[in-house]
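WARN no homologs supplied; continuing
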Amino acid sequence: MTMDEFSRQAFAEWEAARSVRRRGVWMHAIVFAAVNLLLIVIWAVTGAGFPWFVFPLFGWLIGLASHTASVYVLRSPEDELFLRELRRG
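OK structure emitted
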């Protein structure tokens, strides 16, 4: 296997791992939306008093935001090394 083939294979594996991480964020967002919608419905059906659903909503939103940032904004040290080697040629 030449270095070019090795680089292509490494890039394909890196992209596949990145795709899995992105799908994980989307699944997290879908579950977040479904559960919090259910909590809002429960709140509305039980009399719509104090909006208690905001506490789990905002708590979970912090987790979702950090998960999203870790996948779309921040890079792991391994990603940085890989990208540096890829740029080097």
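Residues 42 and 48 are 9 Å apart (CA to CA).
OK
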